[in-house]
Amino acid sequence: MPLSDIQTRIAAAEAQAGRAPGSVTLIAVSKVQPLERVRAVLDEGQRVFGENKVQEAQGKWPDFRRDYPGIALHLIGPLQSNKARPAMEIADAIHTLDRSKLVTTLARLAQEMGRCPDLFVQVNTGEEPQKAGVLPAEADALIAMARKADLPVVGLMCIPPADADPAPHFAMLRDIAARNGLSGLSMGMSSDFEAAIAAGATHVRVGSAIFGERVAAP
Ligand SMILES: *Cc1c(COP(=O)(O)O)cnc(C)c1O
Description:
Elements: H1 3-16, E1 25-29, H2 35-43, E2 48-51, H3 54-67, E3 72-75, H4 84-90, E4 93-97, H5 100-113, E5 118-122, H6 136-148, E6 153-157, H7 167-179, E7 184-186, H8 193-198, E8 203-206, H9 208-211
Pyridoxal-5'-phosphate is lined by residues 29, 31, 52, 76-77, 159, 189-190, 205-209, 218.
Protein name: Pyridoxal phosphate homeostasis protein
Function: Pyridoxal 5'-phosphate (PLP)-binding protein, which is involved in PLP homeostasis.
Family: Belongs to the pyridoxal phosphate-binding protein YggS/PROSC family.
């Protein structure tokens, strides 16, 4: 689907929900996509992108940043502590802060580096054992810990269970954010970004609807 169609659908969902035009940031998820497809979307003017893996991001984004000013890169995949430094070097935002050990690591690196990307705390709203994210009951404590460590927590992120109605998960994320005074909500993907916008998403992460099906597994 052309980028402009996705932009039109986002604008319609914003209007439908009574939200201000432009209040939702589209993150184009470019993981595993061929470089020429990513370049085509850059040529259409898109500047905010999402990647799952630090190494993959390191392989493509330094060159794109040289060619296209104003790129913002969001890391949206699970983050291992031993990849935290390169992640902080390459990313403008990290959506997957999900455990106390990572809070400690990021806080130490932020001190050393004198900067830190915007952070979203990932919440495992479906309490799925195979999925990353802090459990909903433990989210408040993790957010408090990250704030105490002076980390720039700007919002929350979730990936609802694949076969479930996402709406209750979006609502849960919104409630946890509200009671913690957080304004950012990273939720909604190709199949459900309009429902996420209706529920208050500020960042939608859309991959296959823009780029087509991924050729390799993410
Ligand atoms: C791959 C991925 C997306 C994009 O998924 P699509 O269904 O292709 O839009 C969004 N968020 C995360 C965390 C992902 O890993």
